[in-house]
Every structure is written in C-alpha cells, then in structure tokens.
Amino acid sequence: MRTADVRPDAPEPAVVAHPGPGPAAVHPGPEPAVVVHPGPGPAAVHPGPGPGPVAVDPARWPDVAAVPVASWPRRTATEAVVRRALRGLPVRARFAGGDTLGLGGPLLEVRDPAAFHARIGTGGLVGFGESYMAGEWDAPDPVAVLTVLAGHVAELVPAPLQRLRRLWALRHPHDERNTPDGSRSNISRHYDLSNDLFALFLDDTLSYSSALFRGFPATWDRLAAAQHRKIDRLLDLADVGEGTRLLEIGTGWGELALRAAARGARVTSLTLSREQRALALERVRAAGLADRVSIELCDYREARGTYDAVVSVEMIEAVGAEFWPAYFRTLDERLAPGGRAALQAITMPHERMLASRDTFTWIHKYVFPGGLIPSTRAIEQTARDHTRLRPARRDAFGAHYAETLRLWRERFTERADDVEALGFDATFRRLWTFYLAYSEAGFRAGYLDVQQYLFTKEGPAR
Fold it and tell me: How many angstroms separate the CA atoms of 443 and 407, rounded?
C-alpha cells in the first residue's frame, strides 16, 4: 500500500491508485440521554470563568450540577495520582489555595480542588470533562493544556493502575450498542441537536469533517475551498464522473452529494439524521439536482442495489468495533466488480485503540454515543478478513484537521450569543467548547490522525 503524508507546503499528491498488499472528543458513548436546552428550576452554582460563577441547571445536567460523593481514601489517592502526573508535565497547574505544579507551560487553573479530585476519582475522564463543564477548572488556552495531556496520555496513570484498568474504568452502556435501532438513537443525539446550531460554526458548505488546505495557518475565508478540495479528492479517488452510480454512506448536509451530482453522477445518499436529511433535501432542490440525488433515511445495513463507487466520510467512527465487519461487508456487497470505495476516517494508534476500546469516555457520554475511533491496522484487517476490498492508497493529513477544528472552535466562541439565542445554555456552551478543544488537541498531539483511503474490489466472492 502506498501511504502519503499530505503536508501544506507540498504539492497535492497525484490521485493515482497504487496496488499494494491487502483495513476520536474521540467518538465516545453512553449514559443518560443528554438534554441540552435550558429550562426553569434552581441551578447549582460552580466556580466559572470570568467574574461570575457558572450556574448549572440540575434538571438538565444532573451529573454536572452535583459533585459525586467520594470517600476520603479515594479522594486522597486520586489527588496523589493527579499531583504525581502534573509534576512531570510541561504545564503550570495552579490549585486554588494551594501550590503550582508542573515543569512550566500552559496554565491549568483548578478553582475547586476538592470537587476536581472527587470527579476524577469517581469518573476518570468523564469526571475530568464534567469538572470543566461545571467551571471547577479552566485554562486561558484549553487546547494547549489538552494537547500536553493528549501527548502524555499513556503516562498519566501509573502502570499498576493501568493494568487494573478493567476494574476501575467506566463501561459502555449496553443500550448504546450500534444496532440499527441503537444507531438511530446515537446519531440523533448529536446530529439532530439543531441545524441552526451547526450552521453557526460551519462554513457555507456545511461540511462537518476535516478540510484539506493548501497552506497553513488556515484562515476562515479559505475553509470552504479547502472542504471542496477534500471532497473532490475523494470523488477523484472513487473515479466519480458522468453516469457513475454512487452510494454515499453518511449524508451530512449534502455537500458531497451535490458535488458528485454536478459531475454527472447519480447519487444515493444514506443518513439516520432526520434534521440533516431535511436540510440536505432543501439544498438538493435549490441546486436543481433532485433528478440526480436521492437522500434516504436508511441504515447502511439496509442499503440495496449495485454501485460503481461508494464514498463514506468520517462514518466508520460511529459504527463501533462490533459492527466494523458489517460496515465493510456493506461496502463490498454494494460495490460492482471493479468498483472503487473512497473513505475518510479518523484514526488512532492501534495500541491506544486496544487500550481504550472498552472504556466509556466523556465524549461518549456527552457528544458521540456508541462510537470508537479505529486504527489503520483495524481498518485494513477488517477489510481483508471480511471482504474482497483491498486498500490501494492511503493519505494522512491530521494537521489539517487540527486547523479545521481551530476555525470551528473560534467561530463557535465568537458566536456564543447566537448559540444562547438558539436556547443552548452556558453549560452546553462549555461542553461544546471543551469538545472542540479536546478534539483539536488530539490531532495536534498526534494522538489522532485522519486518512483518506481508496479500496478496490477484487477476487472471487467469499
């Protein structure tokens, strides 16, 4: 397989299939459904950024409003582990009423140490994120702090505790498995929040995946062109043109389907989000392409028909490891002999994927239920073991995702008042800020990457 690392100062790699040997904030998961709209009722008050505290609505955010009860031994042990980790990191961790730890670097300010340690001691990474939502810790530059933590993630917990991970790590709720019904629920919890919310921080293409820039630093005025460059590269990989029968798994808000149809393709696009489908259909009709694009509310496992090409952008992260074979079999079964499948996928190192695949994280609970970011090894092995698909090309461009996320985060922050006007409270806005910063940090630290894959179909049916 040929692997290209796409750099901003290098020419775009030629989109050519090279034959070769023959397969996430982090996509997380479960717990109670997250209701994000503020409502009446008393609010728990937590330390917050700026001059005033953060008021948390306990009816909407019960696990954020209430600091969990932690026994004295647990809290003491957690504090010892946290302080040990921070002492060796290139950060400045300043504790209210106490000292400052770390080797120097971006500031992490812990405003309520007792609550901070109680949450981490009872909830691990989930508690760490909830502590931020509650305003118990903050940072002038949260991306810088989170980048340091992501870069040292394997060292934060002592080795003896790592070996006991299965005993203390939170587990995924069973009802958030990505069965057909579970997938509909999981997808709805994120993508059906509000089309207007996403429109506030995405560019005019409404593309919610990594862009591909010509140079850094990326700027907002170049984001739409960079999203089109990403889409066009995928369509070129899949050889989409006049008369191509194209299946898209994961519609988003329809930009890829629109560009494929403009090339003369006939597109069937699948989504589980009613909100996304409604807006994507509006955009298709407005472009005069309704005769070329069909957008179906349909699980990928329910897809039918035969296609010359299949394209799927950052969909595999929401599938879950249990269903990766079914996902790749769908690509194989729907693809005509000689067809091409182009995928864009967020990835993580294989060892980290194995270590974290059964862990329930903050991202799972509040942002992406039921998901798991795969490794490139897992992707290629699943395709090899379960399909006739073989990887012909892989291009990595994680630095571009960090820049994409930075632009989204800055836009979201600039439009905080507009987010509030849509009915999303201060706790939600901290949640979303943390999610975007957490994701950006993962790419800046190299903990996460993003790939464009070309798979070709060959060999007899299994």
Answer: 14
Give me the residue label for tokens 């987010």: 419
Residues 457, 462: Cα–Cα separation, whole Å: 12
Phi, psi of 156, deg, nearest 5: -70, -35
Q: Which of 50-59, 95-104, 139-148, 359-368 has the lowest mean pLDDT?
A: 50-59
DSSP type of residue 359: B
Q: Give the C-alpha distances (Å, rounded to integers) separating 359 from 26, 186, 272, 363.
A: 11, 17, 25, 11
Measured N-to-C along each axis, helices 426-444 and 398-414 cross at an angle, to the nearest 10 degrees, of 160
Type of residue at 308: D
Alpha helices in 387-444 (DSSP H): 398-414, 416-421, 426-444
Going by C-alpha positions, the residue among 6, 5, 7, 24 that lies closest to residue 442 is 24
Residue 17 has pLDDT above 50, yes or no: no
Question: Would you say 172 and 28 are in contact if contact means Cβ atoms under 8 Å apart?
Answer: no
> Is residue 429 within 8 Å of 420, Cβ to Cβ?
yes
- The separation between the first and the last C-alpha atoms of the chain, rounded to the nearest angstrom, is 22
Q: Give the residue from 388, 405, 385, 390 showing the smallest Cα distance to 314.
A: 405
CA dist list (Å): 320 to 24, 172, 420: 12, 11, 33
Mean pLDDT of the chain: 87
Lowest average pLDDT, out of 34-48, 147-161, 265-279, 298-312, goes to: 34-48
Q: Which token pair is 400?
A: 């571009």
Going by C-alpha positions, the residue among 457, 456, 328 that lies closest to residue 392 is 456
- How far is 111 from 452, CA to CA, in rounded Å? 42
Gyration radius from the chain CA atoms:
22
pLDDT exceeds 50 at position 51: no
Whether this model's pTM surpasses 0.85: yes
Does 86 have pLDDT greater than 80? yes
Q: CA 205 to CA 202: how far, in whole Å?
A: 8
What are the residues facing 271 on neighbouring strands? 297
DSSP-derived secondary structure letter, 33: P
pLDDT band at 358 (very low <50, low <70, confident <90, very high): confident
Distant-in-sequence, close-in-space partners of 382: CB < 8 Å, separation ≥ 6:
23, 324, 325, 328, 374
Give the pLDDT band of residue 30 (cuts 50, 70, 90): very low
Burial class (CB in 10 A: 0-12, 13-18, 19+), 333: middle
User: What confidence tier does 118 reach under pLDDT thresholds 50, 70, 90?
Assistant: very high
